[in-house]
Specification:
heterodimer, A: alpha/beta, Rossmann fold, 7-stranded parallel sheet, 38% helix, globular, B: mainly alpha, Urease accessory protein UreF, 10 helices, 71% helix, 0% strand, binds guanosine-5'-diphosphate, binds magnesium ion, UreF_sf (chain B), UreF (chain B), nickel cation binding (chain B)
Chain lengths: 226, 223
């Protein structure tokens, strides 16, 4: 059993030059380097692209690798994928100074819209990096079992406050000696009822609960807007 | 000195500057910045060329010159297409932050007239006016940005001792003030004589470096 953050679509002061109107649900995906954020974005695109219009913003630290990977995988049409350069400081670009990311989202919606869903992948950072509420409506934090099964216990803003915690690469658990039960117990204790999902995205396992969680958010947004 | 100036000039003001190196990334890669002494030389060169021009544009905007005419004057003084695009992008980002901080019809009008972004110094000048600052304040903030951006970036690029970087900026302080005063004087002349009276100093190596930098496949900073 779990509960969600009460305030799902906080008031935003994005001060865009263009006017308001319909806009997509913005979902941030954060987490350490290599935990599987890009793989999760790709899997979510495949799971949801026939139902809703999706755009993706990647934040690459010093290349366009993630955007290029998604383009190569052809998970979306090229005009639906855009990259933001974060200037050596990925957490600044999603939290302290979100202007470049806001612009990327607005430009995507203007040029490829109307969109229902925009997925923003942060440049991999440490466990304290979270998205500003001025940038995203909800955020998913992606960690993996190989990063150490004590990460949920250690907590930190990503683990404790993200709207959905994804623990990826469960296929590696036996190889790295990670105790999944303990991770689940620790996550539950840290997150005060917020949901956690275990996945093996590269093996195509576990993405459906994540996709369902996003569908639920989309439905809520549609209901709120109606 | 007003607190609004401190906010506008604060490197943490959320206007996109953190992703840019002011040309330092190219200069480091090409061996022109290697330590505190060469960083100081680089900053001095930038301050007296594009720094002066930007500060004068900003001061003129704060003094009430037509922002769209100034935007054209900025284009004419920015030969590198890459740097023109960078300046407009930073202008767009600064406009968003400034509209939140100091709501004003002048900022709204500028955003409506240049939805893809006006040149950053022009936006800064209009924002300074909206914040109740003077043309000299706007020139100071802009001239300071001309040196603080490469100095901050060099701390990350070279792992330069941050105290040395701060000392470089402190030693450049009097020159920054002098450039700001010259820029403000030029802005005043431009109000009576026309925008051609604004300085047009340039730094070809910054222009060439920016064009090269934009073609790198891998980089830490956007410019
Ligand atoms: N074994 C395993 N590898 C995975 C899984 N998900 C992603 N990977 C691999 O982990 C590496 C990093 O994934 P990526 O999505 O690029 O991580 P990001 O840095 O968080 O975006 C890649 O080599 C992926 O193929 C998984 O569920 N299991
Ligand atoms: Mg990635």
């Amino acid at each position: 059993m779990h509960q969600d953050h009460p305030e799902v679509f906080p008031q935003r002061h994005t001060m865009s030059a263009s006017g308001g109107g319909r806009r997509a649900l913005r979902v941030g995906l954060g987490g350490p380097v290599g935990s599987g954020k890009t793989a999760t974005v790709a899997a979510l695109c495949r799971a949801l692209r026939d139902e809703v219009a999706i755009g993706v913003v990647t934040n690459d630290i010093y290349t366009r690798e993630d955007a290029d990977f998604l383009l190569r995988q052809a998970v979306l049409a090229p005009e639906r994928i855009t990259a933001v350069e974060t200037g050596a400081c990925p957490h600044t670009a999603i939290r302290d100074d979100i202007s470049a990311n806001l612009e990327a989202v607005e430009d995507l919606e203007e040029q490829a819209g109307p969109l229902d869903l925009v997925l923003l992948e942060s440049g991999g950072d440490n466990l304290t990096a979270t998205f500003s509420k001025g940038l995203v409506d909800v955020q998913i934090f992606v960690i993996d079992v190989a990063g150490g099964d004590d990460i949920p216990r250690k907590g930190g803003p990503g683990v404790t406050t993200s709207d959905l915690l994804v623990v990826n690469k469960v296929d590696l658990a036996e190889h790295v000696g990670a105790d999944l039960d303990r991770m689940a117990t620790d996550a539950a204790a840290q997150r005060g009822g917020l949901p956690t999902v275990f996945t093996s995205v590269a093996r195509g396992q576990g993405i459906e609960p994540v996709a369902a969680w996003i569908r639920e958010r989309l439905a809520r947004k549609a209901a709120g807007a109606a | 000195m007003s607190a609004a100036l401190l906010l506008l000039a604060d490197g943490r003001f959320p206007a996109g500057g953190h992703a840019h190196s002011g040309g330092a990334e190219t200069a480091v890669a090409e061996g022109r910045i290697t330590d505190a002494a060469t960083l100081a030389e680089f900053c001095r060169g930038r301050l007296h060329t594009t720094g002066l021009v930007a500060a004068a544009l900003a001061a003129a905007a704060t003094a009430g010159a037509d922002p769209l005419a100034l935007d054209g004057a900025a284009d004419a003084r920015t030969p590198s297409p890459v740097l023109r695009a960078v300046s407009r992008r930073l202008g767009r980002q600064l406009l968003r932050a400034a509209r939140a901080a100091w709501p004003s019809p002048a900022l709204d009008r500028l955003g409506a007239a240049r939805p893809r972004g006006a040149h950053q110094p022009v936006v800064l000048g209009v924002a300074a006016r909206a914040a109740g600052l003077t043309p000299l304040d706007a020139a100071r903030a802009t001239a300071y940005e001309a040196v603080s951006s490469p100095a901050t970036a060099t701390v990350r690029l070279l792992a330069l001792d941050p105290f040395e970087s701060a000392a470089v900026l402190a030693r450049l302080g009097p020159e920054v003030d002098a450039v700001a005063e010259a820029a403000e004087a030029a802005a005043r002349r431009a109000l009576s004589e026309g925008l051609d009276a604004l300085p047009a100093a340039s730094a070809p190596l910054l222009d060439i470096g920016a064009e090269r930098h934009a073609a790198w496949p891998t980089r830490l900073f956007t410019s």
